[in-house]
Specification:
binds pyridoxal-5'-phosphate, Aspartate Aminotransferase, domain 1, 366 residues, seven-stranded mixed sheet, alpha/beta, Aspartate Aminotransferase, domain 2, globular, 13 strands, 2 domains, 15% strand
Length: 366
């Protein structure tokens, strides 16, 4: 009845598919010991140094957070070798994405990205009145030449997820260089590096290598994955100070809460936690891949902390059956991959339980 109040591009938006709270699922299913491998979270929990830092902030919760994000930006500045003016922090990197489309996109202008990739790119573009132009992956990899081909005079932003969620595939240095050389002027390139901390292939460039005052590139990173702070919501963007400055004008001053600021700063210094996380993820995915190889199940080799697995049957059925046995994974139907599931590396015992349940559901003998 309120159609007249809302722009059509909002009324026709498909909402991001949220999951139910774990506790609610368990109550409905009558189980108590479920494991969640569906959101690419850190199986080790939060960084212990981040937890300590939060505790010290608790008695200051009556104060507004630091709107300048002074200490966190100092820490990031040391970590990345960039000036604080080249950094913008957000309520998750999701918020930086939203600031990007609000800052740089006029209604009717186009955003190009890959598909399947992170669903929020399309949702946020449409939400800003933009036109989303997804270019299909080629052999599960982002097709940069295809993206160049898709550029029109209305193209304003190109978003590249490296490594790409949900495939775990990467863009290599040579491909990047060719892409940047072919890029017409007037287009801003966004590199979403949510999973870059898991990459150990030296041929995968960090967006950082490409940051220069005259290059229209912005990198995005998050504390939600490798640093184990998804619940606190903190991420950041980096790029030329002039571009960052425009976004900062739109940022609401207290967008990153004080606990998140303190935790993120401490997590940056928690080198031991990051190393343990990387080792656990690598060993976990290696183990899962070896077992899938033995079973003859196909998957896409991953540079991130998750794995895209081909189940050759409706992924929703596999999801439902695994859910009933307390193993929560992601069915990929909403990513146009109806016969694939995505699972992230868990603790060793979680990986074992995933495989046990998966084998049962897929009809393999023990
Ligand atoms: C998880 C994820 C993010 C979102 O991170 P937040 O900082 O939690 O908002 C961004 N991009 C991709 C591709 C992701 O998978």
């Amino acid at each position: 009845m309120f159609e007249a109040l809302v722009p059509e591009y909002i009324a026709t938006l498909a909402a991001y598919p949220p999951g139910k709270p774990l506790e609610e699922l368990e109550r409905e299913l009558g189980i108590t010991d479920s494991i969640k491998l569906a959101s690419n979270e850190n199986p080790l929990g939060p960084s212990p140094l981040a937890l300590q830092a939060i505790t010290k902030q608790l008695d200051k919760l009556h104060r507004y957070p630091d709107a300048s994000l002074y200490y966190l930006k100092q820490g990031l500045s040391r970590h990345l070798g960039l000036a604080p003016e080249q950094l913008i922090c957000g309520n998750g990197s999701d918020e930086i994405l939203e600031l990007l489309v609000r800052t740089f996109l006029l209604p009717g202008q186009e955003v190009i990205s890959a598909t399947p990739s992170f669903l929020m790119y399309g949702i946020l573009t449409q939400g800003a009145g933009g036109v989303f132009r997804p270019v299909p992956l080629k052999d599960f990899r982002i097709d940069l030449p295809g993206i160049i081909q898709a550029i029109t005079p209305k193209t304003r932003l190109i978003i590249i997820n490296n490594p790409n969620n949900p495939t775990g595939t990467v863009v290599r240095r040579r491909e990047w260089d060719d892409f940047l050389a072919a890029l017409p002027p007037g287009i801003l390139v966004v590199v979403d590096e949510a999973y870059i901390d898991f990459v150990d292939d030296p041929d995968v460039p960090h967006g950082l290598e490409y940051i220069g005052a005259d290059r229209p590139i912005i990198g995005l990173r998050t504390f939600s994955k490798a640093y184990g702070l998804a619940g606190l919501r903190v991420g950041y963007g980096y790029g030329p100070a002039a571009l960052i400055g425009y976004m900062d004008r739109l940022r609401s001053p207290f967008n990153v809460n004080s606990l998140a600021q303190a935790a993120a700063l401490a997590a940056l210094e928690d080198h031991d936690f990051l190393a343990r996380t990387r080792r656990l993820v690598k060993e976990g995915l290696d183990f899962i891949c070896r077992e899938l190889d033995r079973l003859g199940i196909a998957y896409i080799p991953s540079h991130a902390n998750f794995l895209l697995i081909r189940v050759e049957r409706p992924s929703g059925e596999v999801y439902d059956q695994m859910l009933r046995q307390g193993v929560i994974i992601r069915a990929m139907a909403s990513y146009q991959l109806p016969e694939y599931i995505r699972v992230n590396a868990g603790l060793p015992e979680e990986n074992q339980r995933f495989l046990r349940t998966f084998k049962k559901v897929m009809g393999f003998a023990d």
